[in-house]
Amino acid sequence: MWLKPEEVLLKNAFKLWVTEKSNDYFVLQRRRGYGEGGGGLTGLLVGTLDTVLDSTAKVAPFRILHQTPDSQVYWSIACGATREEINQHWEWLLQNIMRTLSVFDSSEDITSFVQGKIRGLIAEEGKVSLVQEDDPEKFREALLRFEKWFGLPEKEKLVTYYSCSYWKGRVPCQGWLYLSTNFLSFYSYLLGSEVKFIVSWDEIWKLEKSSNVILAESIHVVAGGEDHYFSMFLHLNETFLLMEQLADYAVRRLFDKETFQQEPALADPLQISKRGLETHARNEQFRAFFRLPREENLLEVYESFLWVPFSHFNTLGKICLSESYLCFASQDGSQCYVIVPIREVVSVEKPDSSSRAVTVCVRGKRALRFSEVRDYERLAYGIRRRCGAAASPMHITAGEVSLAIRPLIEDFTEEALMVGQKSSSKAVSTEALMTVFHPQDAENLDPKMLKEKMKEQSWNIHFSEYGRGMSMFRTKKTRDLIVRGVPEFLRGELWLLFSGAVNDMATHPGYYSELVEQSLGTSTLATDEIERDLHRSLPEHPAFQSDTGISALRRVLTAYAYRNPKIGYCQAMNILTSVLLLYAKEEEAFWLLVAVCERMLPDYFNRRIIGALVDQAVFEELIREQLPQLTEHTTDMTFFSSVSLSWFLTLFISVLPIESAVNVVDCFFYDGIKAILQLGLAVLDYNVEQLLACRDDAEAVTILNKFFDSVTNKDSPLPATVQQAPVSNNDRTSHPKVDITDLIREAYEKYGDIRSEEVESMRRRKKLFVIQTLEDTTRQNVVIRALSASLWGSYADLQRQHFLSCYWTMNSPALLHHDPSLPYLEQYQLGRSQFCALFSLLAPWVHCAGRDALSLWAFHLLDENQDGLVNFKEFCCGLDTLYSGTFTEKLKFLFKMHLSPGERNDFTTFTALIDLGFFAKHILPSCWCIFMFSGRGKVDLQAYLKQWQDELLKKEENIKDLPRINQCQFIQFSKTLYNLFHGDPEEESLYRAVASVTSLLLRMEEVGRRLQEPGTPTETTPPNGEASTSPEGSSDTPSPPSVPEPNSHRQEVEWSFAFEQILASLLNEPILVRFFEKPVDVQARLEHAKATQLKV
């Protein structure tokens, strides 16, 4: 490998290199301790030094130096892992450089020329290299070591590497941690002791920062049941965040089957880089904090002061600019942030160059003044370019500009909405259901309504000071108003604002109406489930006792299922959507549902409810931190997970009366999942004494249910007909009423210091554990009861083969056609190349000469529906036949492989006689992990297999039904038999037996054909003798027998054979029967596959 020229001072240096070749300008050296005369103490010391100092010499012990006469300075220009490689570089220098150097007069010119040539060679290599790093030269050297030490496929992309210590027991091993797209790898070499291991990201259960007496701070990784500790990082936080991102990327890509089409930095596994991952993480954090659409990316960041008019001071913070939004977040503890859609900007001014200020005027006669912006001209230009607003004359105020342009904007918006709703305005409801079924009486002066009016007045004052709409200032006061409760008539507007759904609706006019038209009338599994649950959604509320509410709910849920078929419809979505429809218009409710399902509660509403399980794990950790007395009392923390699942899935709507639950939803839309976690802790804290006195889980559940029944909303203006009655009225007198406002306020006071960033970090960590636990539990539910302990360790090699099809591409058939709704044994599939690779490793005929062709034929045979994929069920059928089938079944498998696709029947008939005991114990569990499946509850394995067997028996195939094999197919069938015997100890005898059977079959066919032709002579011509010749004297791999050519006058007549004829002839050769009935060591084949998989 050519190296960027670097100075090497050899005078008085420690003699670590031995010169092997030299001339006037170049020196070829070998690292002491390597090659001839290597090893011993010198080799140990040099190897240790190279590893600790990250020297390339550890993997490239040869180098070439450039020198000039009478100079003590040498330049390293090349290195090599082998003598052959370094000799190639040496010869190139002699042929292309040496002749030219004689024309130069000075040594400086010679050195400059050589360095230029070497840099040119490196630049040419870089054009096709994957290396796009800040320091390409260092990265190239690290990549060389990574490839040499770990032997992973060339397509594996190294992301970055760090120096660290790995703790093997209580002994630290100084070495290097390499992070690549699919693997975490470590290498250390100290005094002859080499430590090297590779862990794939999809195997990791736990990834966390930890500390103890020995390790001040370290990174703890749990994978494959083993604990790994890494410490002594120069930048531990940076390393940990990058490891989190790579692990999360693997989970989303391999388990969730995401393709990242809208995220270019992650779309191609071969182009993943440290910079790309950091950019992606920054964009995700930016979108989550400001609740922006998924297509928004952070483009520019500026430090500045923002003038806060209501407080009359400047607050320090950062301006974050994306393609469509200008955002500001304070950094001085004032918790002030602003979101300005570029579409609402009407002008951008630079009033005072001395203060480096930029004034942004927005609709509504409002202006934002940013000062002390370092590059204020660039900021102003960037905003103008995005909104198309030219700078106004200095004498025109922001208010005048706003008044001038506002009618145009309003007309445009109104027209767009009319166009979008014109065709379906009759179908889509334009009023919130609460407005229809509970209109407010302005003249009602009862105490609750007066309290409601006071809330409205407080919000109006807030709007006048802080602004209204998207560009409103959001501060501590905003949160205080949310905690006190939102007025009924403002609830829908504020939900849209704080969730960010208002942005989606503004940028997609008419989208919902189109979805309604396209989705109504469709019939899918999702629509069937929706119809079943429509009347279970808030059935006590008058709005959902009428066709108006039910129809609106049906349209919203059906439209969303049509928009996002990956989620479709899941239970709990109906309850949430019902509450949204009470306070928001139908289209607004749809966009609120989009915000909840796709941004605020990711992975909640699918069949595995991964998101809810992750947040429950976060909740458990918070309980340990905040309520240690409960942790000490409760031995099994899963109780809190089971009891709190409905809290997270329905945002407490299913356990609290509706008039109280909406206050929780208010907080959720403002603070996200943090609000639900805080309230959950407050609920447990409120009942902690009673929970500590409980004797079992049932008693604890009863206490919590009674508590929720006692929660009220004393300020709710809703009439009794609308308010939800408590589930249980027993012993109500013994439980004092708890006002929801007081409960929420207490939650914020006690647990408000929980930061959203900490919650997101815990979410990422817990997701690994939840995913692996769910997969492991599902595996056990399906196969563990039928699995022998000796085969449990064979999962990894079969599981990885499925992942291999996704490791280095986003376009693998197995990934693109993944369908989580399929049954377990049919859900995960292999494409042709991955199937052939695995089948070649697991086929019982170890030395088969034509394994590639055999694997391809087997793939086409097992691919029942001809979709180019083989699922787990089909794969197991093939292995079971080859491992445990009878002689007849194995022969039938080979026979059908040689039929044309149109002649093959369903392959499932091959498994009609499967030994379910052997299959369940040996084949199914060992192959299961290759097709990682989604868990949807417990599965009875024996019941599933019984159902499968019943289906197969219905289609049991008689060998007489098999079509005859023609001339070309029989020739290929004979070749296949010969290939199977290659390398067998009885190879010669098997060849003779097949030759004898082939000759017999050909004679039988010739005689039969002559008897059917009355005009032919009675004499028969014996077939060509070559078919029965012995393989003696032939090559190591004898050719298959020659097939006699028919006479010229009968050339148009082709002969054929029935399966019965072939079977009967082969049964006459006991050695062939023994070969096919020979038992197969399944465990040995699996171990071989495990050791070979990544190299295939």
Automatic annotation (TrEMBL):
SUPFAM superfamilies named in the record: EF-hand, Ypt/Rab-GAP domain of gyp1p
Places the protein is found: Cytoplasm, Cytosol
Limits of the EF-hand domain: 850-885
GO biological process, one term: glomerular filtration
GO cellular component labels: cytosol
Family matches, as Pfam families: GRAM, RabGAP-TBC
Bias kind Low complexity: ranges: 1013-1026
Keyword Metal-binding: yes
InterPro entries per UniProt: EF-hand-dom_pair, EF_Hand_1_Ca_BS, EF_hand_dom, GRAM, PH-like_dom_sf, Rab-GAP-TBC_dom, Rab-GAP_TBC_sf
UniProt biased composition (Polar residues): 1027-1037
Gene3D superfamilies for the chain: EF-hand (1.10.238.10), Pleckstrin-homology domain (PH domain)/Phosphotyrosine-binding domain (PTB) (2.30.29.30), putative rabgap domain of human tbc1 domain family member 14 like domains (1.10.8.270), Ypt/Rab-GAP domain of gyp1p, domain 3 (1.10.472.80)
UniProt-annotated stretches for the region Disordered: 1008-1049
Residue span, Rab-GAP TBC domain: 485-672
Record's keyword terms, sorted: Calcium, Cytoplasm, GTPase activation, Metal-binding, Repeat
GO molecular function, one term: GTPase activator activity
Signal peptide: none
Identification of the protein by name: TBC1 domain family member 8B
GN (gene name): TBC1D8B
